[in-house]
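sry for the spam today, last one i promise. struct tokens for design, 196 residues
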């Protein structure tokens, strides 16, 4: 099998990002975004999905965290799409029901080539560290549309905001790992259309 590795660079007036992704990694992560809580979430995503990630973002944090978080989501989505390539032989679908203490998060993915995003989580604080909790939605929205994936994340239980956020990232990691796995029974693309 070919190595599924991608490197994406994105430069705007607001952010400068370089992200390398190895879908078939071991969970090694170097993440420097200037937003400590986001670094923690991406490190958890890498570790629990067994993805290798090298991410550096320099952005206008003197304004707020919005541009950095949204643009990192765009770049991660592009990296996923490029690394997975033509999707031959992969499962395509993945889901995870992930507990984190009192929180329980459901994530389901279809690497369909058709972007759609649904997110249902309730945060009761405006920030987790330097990360605006409303930006968690926008991060995953950006990932789903840039990767052209169908992504559903739903909080089934939970009151601790840290657990709800971290559970979302880890559930996404586990579901994406399953969706990108090769299945030796699949000889082409998992679609009756023959393309995704």
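last one done:
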């Amino acid at each position: 099998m070919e190595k599924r590795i991608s490197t994406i660079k994105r430069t705007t007036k607001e952010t400068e990002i370089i992200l390398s992704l190895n879908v078939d990694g071991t969970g090694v992560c170097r993440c420097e975004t200037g937003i400590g809580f986001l670094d923690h979430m991406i490190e958890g995503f890498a570790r629990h999905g067994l993805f290798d990630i090298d991410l550096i973002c320099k952005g206008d944090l003197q304004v707020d965290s919005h541009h950095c978080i949204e643009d990192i989501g765009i770049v991660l989505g592009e990296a996923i799409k490029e690394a997975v390539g033509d999707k031959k032989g992969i499962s395509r679908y993945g889901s995870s029901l992930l507990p984190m203490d009192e929180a329980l998060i459901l994530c389901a993915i279809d690497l369909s080539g058709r972007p759609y995003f649904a997110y249902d989580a309730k945060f009761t604080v405006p920030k987790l560290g330097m990360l605006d909790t409303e930006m968690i939605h926008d991060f995953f929205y950006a990932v789903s549309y840039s990767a052209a994936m169908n992504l559903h994340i739903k909080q089934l239980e939970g009151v601790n905001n840290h657990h709800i956020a971290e559970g979302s990232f880890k559930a996404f990691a586990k579901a994406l790992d399953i969706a990108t796995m090769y299945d030796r029974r699949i000889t082409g693309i998992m679609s009756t259309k023959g393309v995704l």
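The chain has one domain: 5-180. ok im logging off now
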